[in-house]
Each structure stands twice: as C-alpha cells, then as structure tokens.
Amino acid sequence: MNEPLPEVLKFCAWYLALGADEVVICFDNPDDPAINILSDHPRLRCISCTPAFWQSLGLTADDAFVTRQNAALTWIYQKYPDGWLLNVDADEFLFFEGRSVADVLAGVPIDKKSLRVKTAERILAQDEAVLTHFRLPMERAVRHAVYGEDAQLFGPRRQGLVGHAHGKSIVRCGIEGLVLRQHWPRYLRSDGADEMVLHNEDGAYLLHMIGESYEIWRNKLAWRSHARGFTDGLTDRVKLAQRSSDPEEALRDLHQRLHHATPERLAALNAQGVLLTLSMDIDALVREYFWVSASDLDAPGKGQET
Predict the structure, then answer these.
(1) Where are the beta strands (DSSP E) in the chain?
(2) Rounded average pLDDT over 193-208
(3) Segment 111-131 mean pLDDT
(4) In whole angstroms, how large is the CA radius of gyration of the chain?
(5) What percentage of the chain reaches a pLDDT higher than 70?
(6) What's the pLDDT tens digit per position in 169-189?
(7) What is the mean pLDDT of residues 201-230?
(8) Residue 290 contacts by C-beta under 8 Å, 6 or more apart in sequence?
(9) How far apart are the first and last CA of the chain?
(10) Residue 95 and residue 182 in contact, taking contact as beta carbons nearer than 8 Å
(11) Average pLDDT, stretch 208-229?
(12) Confidence check: pLDDT of 116 > 60
C-alpha cells in the first residue's frame, strides 16, 4: 500500500467493520507515516517493506511490482495455518448484500480452496452526497448501448470496466504449497473445481473505487500505464492526452469520460441492469474506529499503487 492517509484509514475502517480478525498492510514506502499511527491498533498489523524485508523474500525493492506483490501475499498467507485470507488493494471494498462475510464463508464447500467475488466499479455522479453508484461488468452490446462512441475506452477484455472484472479471492488458509497471485491462487484446476465464484447477481461485490479521486488517478497514470493497469487502447489515449497542448485539460476530460456519469447515463446503466446503487458512509466508519474524519484530513493524492 502506498496511499494518502485518508485512503488508508477508509480501507482499515471498512474491513474492521466487516469483522476481520486482523488487517495486514504491507507498506511499500517503509517510512509511510501511517505506520506509526496504526501500529498500536490490536487488529492492525503494519509491515514496513524495507530493503531487508524484500531481501528476506529473495527480492529487491527494484523488482517488478507484481513480482513483489505476489511474493508478499504468499509470505503472509503462509503465516496463517487456518481461517481465510482476502487479498485486496487499498481501493477495493468487499460487500455482501444482507449477509456477513462469516455467513458467506460458512457456505463454501470444504473442497474449495478459494471464493472469488466479482467486481463492481465506482462511477461518480451528481448525487454523491446521498448515493454511491457502481457499474457492473457488461457484455459488448450493452457497453456500446451505454457508452456509444466512448465504448472503446472500456474494453475489449474489461467487460465495460476501466479496471479488472475478475474480482478478488478469499483463500482458505493452511493449504501447503499454495502460492498466491493478485486475483486467485496459482495452479487452480482449469475446470473451476478448486474455486467458488460469486457474481454480482448473487449479491456479492468487490467494490472497486478506481477513479474516485482525480488527484490519485492522475498521480497513478504513469504506474498504471507501465504496469498494464489499463488496456492498450486506454494507455494510448492517456499518452495522447499527455502530449496535447493542454495535458491537464485533456486528462480531466478523459477522467470525466471514464469515471463520471450523467443522470442520462445512470438511467442507461440501470435500464441495462448493470447499475448498483448503495448508501455508503465510509467516513462514519473512520470516525468510529479512528476518532477522526477522513474528509477533514489533507489528501494530496500522493500514492503510487495499492
């Protein structure tokens, strides 16, 4: 994790409220100020990713991010002989309609190694103070019906989303030799026998807050473009905007196209059955668990990747 403090507090508060026994955070910046703030919390475990930490995993801080991420995930997983481990980025919030995480996990068959929850992606709208909107993965025809000429920004393999549609996995602990990756464990059988997948129609969502803050989105452009966080087509559009006569205006326009929705577009998403609307107050959870309002903290949008 490498995020502004308000984003760190939102993440921690959400998962504490969900009932996590422990929230483990690997701080890519070993001097992150959040470490001192959070390290005494009984349910938070802060790992400072120093050069010595990476060396203990046979890596260096200069190795590819995904390589380091997967190694750290597997290292953490191996520390827990039982229970379940959910791997998520700082902008990903697990949500089940009408059920607790414990209730959902109790229903996973014993022969399944993991439970994967599909993505719902944040979109910004005019009624932000009251409601929080998310678009759901959609087929090509739906994508074109909703986005028209902008549909090419959302594909072809992202199912109408900017980020990933795969979702993230809650992995059963204690499986010897299991190696973790970003979205699911390695070496799962291709016929799906090892994992259970919950789709949005099951009332299960990985709420991806990608693009919620223009400043954070802006500061992560170089990383996402380099690390294939965007599709090739979208990466080209970012580069085109950066080379324009007014890069800032061009990037803001691109962000608007990607992550904002007019009332008409919300209606189109709803008509196609790919809109999720929730009433969320994450800041209230931050106040409950950390006695401070995230909205009152300075959020310069510095982080690189979660």
Answers:
(1) 23-27, 44-48, 84-86, 92-96, 114-117, 119-123, 132-135, 168-172, 195-198, 204-208, 275-278
(2) 96
(3) 92
(4) 19
(5) 97
(6) 999 999 999 999 999 999 888
(7) 90
(8) 9, 12, 13
(9) 4
(10) no
(11) 87
(12) yes
Query: Which tokens belong to 25?
Result: 């955070």
| d(C-alpha 40, C-alpha 281), whole Å | 25
Distance CA 163, CA 154 (A): 9
pLDDT in tens, 159-169: 999 999 999 99
As given in the structure block, the two tokens for residue 40 are: 């005494």
Which residues on adjacent β-strands are paired with residue 204?
A: 96
Please answer whether residues 189 and 181 qualify as being in contact, where contact means their C-beta atoms are separated by less than 8 angstroms: no
pLDDT for position 304: 44
The neighbour count for residue 156, using CB atoms within 10 Å, is 12
Type of residue found at 13? A
Q: Please count the residues of the chain.
A: 306
Is the CB of residue 129 less than 8 Å from the CB of residue 140? no
- Residue whose token pair is 């969900």: 18
Report yes or no: 46 and 39 within 8 Å, Cβ to Cβ.
Answer: yes
Q: What is the pLDDT of residue 97?
A: 97
The burial class, CB within 10 Å (0-12 / 13-18 / 19+), for 135 is buried
In 3D space, the residue among 96, 73, 109, 90 whose CA is nearest the CA of residue 19 turns out to be 96
Would you say residue 300 has pLDDT above 50? no
Cα–Cα distance, 19 to 21 (Å, whole number): 6
The tokens describing 232, both together, are 């090739």
Tell me the C-alpha to C-alpha distance, in Å, between residue 279 and each of 105, 128, 134, 167, 292.
24, 10, 11, 21, 21
